[in-house]
Amino acid sequence: MKKQVVDFITLGCSKNLVDTENLMTKFERAGFKVTHDAANPKGRIVVVNTCGFIGDAKEESIEVILQQAMRKQQKKIDKLFVMGCLSERYRSELKEEIPEVDAFYGKFDFDTILSDLQAQPVSACGARYITTPSHYAYIKIAEGCNRACSYCAIPLITGKYKSRSIEAIEQEVKELVAKGVSEFQLIAQDLTYYGKDLYQKFALADLLVRLSDVPGVKWIRLHYAYPTQFPYDILPVIRERDNICKYLDIALQHSSDSMLQKMHRGITCAETEALLQRIRQEVPGICLRTTLMVGHPGETEADFDDLLAFVERKKFERMGAFAYSDEENTYANLHYQDDVPAEVKQQRLDALMRLQQRISYQHNQTLVGTLQTVVVDRIEGDYYVARTQYDSPDVDTECLIACATGDLQIGSYYLVKITKAEEFDFYAEVQN
């Protein structure tokens, strides 16, 4: 009998991607053929995993759902299911507005899609599906968030922080290593808080030691640390363990004390600067990535000038930014007026990113002539596309190596010499 094909579409963050991969594993074990973001979908069943973090992400999710609803009206698909953050938060409204969807599921009940299809529910343990290139994977170490940032709807969607056990994470990494994965991106809404609920202490350092001891783990990279209550005991682990990348993604959001207070970040600018100084002192050469926000209610020109000056001083190697989005039932939505005009938000965002583009270019120039280890992700045109330990997939600088220089293997690691650098690209030659 020909297997039914199920097309999965994932929107939003890498945490959503992990949810999709776990569900795809269960579908595959239940006898379905699964595809992910297929360019030419052939399945008669479609599952859309949505994002509901900010306005732009919600709009994209709704647009994709409507596109698939149209395909269903055109008899191109038989079943359409929607899951994830947007569905968790707006399930009743979506049911009313898009009746073509067969069923909506949230963040934690999507396993029942299988039973709703009259398929036998199965466990996903032991053989996780990987949608990324086969040499790297995202590892979600926790769900939820205990912070109370004024602008953020994530705690409303995902609930309180819930750590996975060190043993469960270690076992998952071992199983993935056996499948050929060598690079791991550790992700959570807040890495900093890891373990507090399970072990009554912050346990990220303990987790890093256990994972870095697993044979076959080449690189571990940390995403989404929180500056308040930062676990300083991870710094010597990062410094001393060769397979933990000298890389930390730590979302700071702002520098102005008035903004940090309005955002309920629990930290001051002086404390932030002291934290950054200590991180750089204890882990020489570390690459810091941060995320910043513009246009939060009450942000003045003086606040924004403070942010620009902060970025100029700190010179983050990697940075992303976004404009405030007024999200229902957040503290900011209930207690503040969204008083920064949309055009001003965009102007500030553009100015901030122009500054970062210059800083990124200056930083990248310092690497020209240096030797770096890179991993090859793919071939694109005339180039192998690779990354250093300082660059995470999809969001950071890529390293281009001319295909004519040799026969390189996807997923393999090479020593290269950086020959040229631009704002967001390196060019390199393999060293023999």
Compact description:
By secondary structure, the protein is an alpha/beta fold. A six-stranded parallel sheet has the order 6-9-10-11-12-13. Strands 2-1-3-4-5 form a five-stranded parallel sheet, with helices on both faces. It has a five-stranded mixed beta barrel with strand order 14-15-16-18-17. It has helices at 14-29, 55-73, 85-97, 112-116, 154-158, 166-178, 196-199, 204-212, 234-240, 257-262, 269-282, 301-314, 331-335, 342-365, and strands at residues 5-10, 33-36, 45-50, 79-84, 103-104, 136-140, 142-143, 162-163, 183-187, 219-225, 244-250, 287-294, 318-323, 371-380, 383-388, 398-402, 413-421, 425-430.
Task: Please give the structural blueprint.
Blueprint: E1 5-10, H1 14-29, E2 33-36, E3 45-50, H2 55-73, E4 79-84, H3 85-97, E5 103-104, H4 112-116, E6 136-140, E7 142-143, H5 154-158, E8 162-163, H6 166-178, E9 183-187, H7 196-199, H8 204-212, E10 219-225, H9 234-240, E11 244-250, H10 257-262, H11 269-282, E12 287-294, H12 301-314, E13 318-323, H13 331-335, H14 342-365, E14 371-380, E15 383-388, E16 398-402, E17 413-421, E18 425-430
Parallel strand pairs: 1-2, 1-3, 3-4, 4-5, 6-9, 9-10, 10-11, 11-12, 12-13, 16-18
Antiparallel strand pairs: 7-8, 14-15, 14-17, 15-16, 17-18
